[in-house]
Amino acid sequence: MLGFFIHDLRLFIKNGGGGWWWWWWWWVVVDSGGGDNGGSLWIPFSIHLTSSPPTSSTTPTTTSHTPDSSTPSSTLPTDQPNPLTSTLPNPTPTPSPPTIHNTRRNPKPNSKYHNSDFKLYTTTTSSFIEPPTITHALKHPSWRHAMQLEFDALKNNNTWTLVPSSHALNLVGSKWVYRIKYYPDGSIDRLKRRLVAKGFTQRPGIDYLETFSPVLKPATLRLILTLAVSQGWVLHQLDINNAFLQGILNEDVFISQPPGFGDPAFPTHVCKLNKAIYGLKQASRAWYDELKSYLVSHGFKPTISDSSLFTLTVGSSPLYILVYVDDIIITGPSASLVTRFIKLLSNKVSLKDLGSLSYFLGVEVLPHPHGLLLSQKKYISDIINKANMSDCRPITTPVTCSETFTLHGAPTYPSPTDYRSIVGALQYLSMTLPDIAFTVNKLSQFMHAPTHQHWTTLKQLLRYLQGTLSKGLLLRKNSPLHLHAFTDADWAGDKDNYRSTTGYVVFLGSNPIAWSSKRQTTLAHSSTEAEFRAVASTTTEVQWLTNLLSELNFKLPLIPVIYCDNLSATTYSANPVFHSRMKHLALDFHFVREKVQNGSLRVTHISGDDQLADVLTKPLLRPRFQLLVSKIGLANSSSILRGNVK
Q: Where would I find the Reverse transcriptase Ty1/copia-type domain in this sequence (predicted)?
């Protein structure tokens, strides 16, 4: 006698788009009975169904920047435009059901298998995701189309030559990387894909020699923006397409054929690079050398103070070029001169004209009748979301006054990688936020061994940033161009080694252009010594800025002034007598005094109540902290947009 028994198991999962995926599994048990001779046969089968909300008939409109129509065609590769607005084989693919590749029953919480693939497919609200491997990318029509365009462009650019593998002394691997680029408002700009070399497999002396490449200093950027806004100059922005592919290599470098795009006629051959590609250790240097040679050949000069700043004077009109890898800012009083330069550069490389400066290196540049506001609101939001603190309660100061930073004051934090990742990301916020410089500097000193106390302080800082998302650095245009600085020191403030902390902020008029909060490298025997070392550090920064302004043909109307709240340190700066108790400060002493005596610098005493650098050396109470922050130049973007900035 045969018996049939049906068992079923159902699994429901809600997808990110608002629909549902579900699976049904049935087991049909066929029982033949018959006592000892009988048996059972289990036959499994399943059904998978998908339910998703109806898609809107209207597609969101996004804007992609393209080169000017007058730009000559180039064989250089260009970035893939926004697939949401392009004609692709499947521009709006149907969301796939979540594919769970984890085959372990109970993965460890901290293992690399723990929910990683599940989150990849279920936490996104868009059908476009960043593929973790080339296998996933090739399954998506838009990513596959983008990779094909990249590969064809590399071939047309004569990036490599196929040679037998026996020619390679060292074979460097290659891989594809994928990123989704967003606009400041969070909408998708384009899908970026890149073939990169595995530079970590390169060998010094064989694959590369020199790797250093200069990048734009943040103080230089703020200085040029201050000059441009005060003079009413044009601010223009360019983006170089595949900049690293322009560099010519001086070494023989061999990489494996691109994964998924190997030549079937020569499957064992390797690629001998004729030009640099992303991922090589010397790629940025090769690109900088190529760009520098081209600019110099057309009359530009790199400044000595910052090699990433190029200057050109045509008649009485200056033109300044700021280069940060493949992002370029152009400024000058003549709009026609800026246009001529863009056309000149387009003859050399493929570029995108992004128009007026609005978003540079993650910094939003918001114009206003009072000047420019530099904001990193989106970057801060990304950090807070990364820490899963988007719903945290804001506070008004980045650190409490009772906080003591020590190395062994609490148990070791169990996830140091998370701590290092967030603190490392916060360091870039010093581009526009001097109010968190002290706290970030302190937290960075414990990245090798963070404790629970440090993690708690880090969360306090994120709560402060949550409440100041709309704050930014205001560069005022109606400001006199004279250089002055505030310097301070917290004597023996480090409770682990009793070293002092130096803090300074340098202003050009009323605009802060340089600041620092840093632990001193040696012990100070007295508060005077700590303050004098801070004065010496500030003098170095002021002298560098003075030299940079001189190279830009800007003559300061007044002698630069450094304000120090320690009377003894101020006196020693101008004292012609060298005391024996200052022998260990001989270099700093003679350096500062030389600048004071030749009239290029003045050190002046200031009351501690007026010391703006106090916020860069120690924790402060809320009223004092907010007062100094407002005086330094931070402003609220919402109040600026309402026109309430004084």
A: 157-399
Which residues does 439 contact at the CB level (< 8 Å), separation at least 6?
398, 399, 457, 461
Q: How many CB atoms lie within 10 A of CB 443?
A: 24
Q: How confident is the model at residue 123 (pLDDT cuts 50, 70, 90)?
A: very low
Question: Mutual orientation of helices 377-386 and 416-426 as an angle, nearest 10°?
Answer: 180
Query: Which residues contact residue 521 at a Cβ distance below 8 angstroms, ignoring those fewer than 6 apart?
Result: 499
Tokens of 172: 């460097």
Structure tokens at 304: 């000595």
| Long-range own/partner contacts, residues 491-495 (CB < 8 A, 24 or more apart) | 491/524, 491/526, 491/527, 491/530, 491/531, 492/523, 492/524, 492/530, 493/617, 493/618, 494/405, 494/519, 495/404, 495/405, 495/406
- Phi, psi of 556, rounded to the nearest 5 degrees: -70, 135
Dihedral over Cα of 436, 437, 443, 447: its sign: positive
pTM of the entire structure? 0.76
Burial 81-114 (b: 16+ CB within 10 A, else e): bbbbbeebeeeeeebebeeeeeeeeeeeeeeeee
Question: In whole angstroms, what is the distance from residue 186 CA to residue 32 CA?
Answer: 62
Is the pLDDT at 197 greater than 50, yes or no? Answer: yes
Main-chain dihedrals φ then ψ at residue 571, nearest 5 degrees? -65, -45
Element (H, E) at 134: helix 134-138
Does the structure show a pLDDT above 60 at 165? yes
Geometric angle at alpha carbon 17, from 14 and 20, rounded to 5°: 30
Distance CA 329, CA 236 (A): 6
Residue 97 pLDDT level (bands cut at 50, 70, 90): very low
Res 638: pLDDT: 63
581 half-sphere exposure, CB direction, 13 A CA radius = 7
- Cα(205)–Cα(404) distance, rounded to whole angstroms? 47
Q: For residue 373, what are its two tokens?
A: 């506001």
Residue 620's Cβ-side half-sphere holds a number of Cα atoms within 13 Å equal to 21
Tell me the sheet residues that pair with 474: 373
Separation of alpha carbons 504 and 534, rounded Å: 8
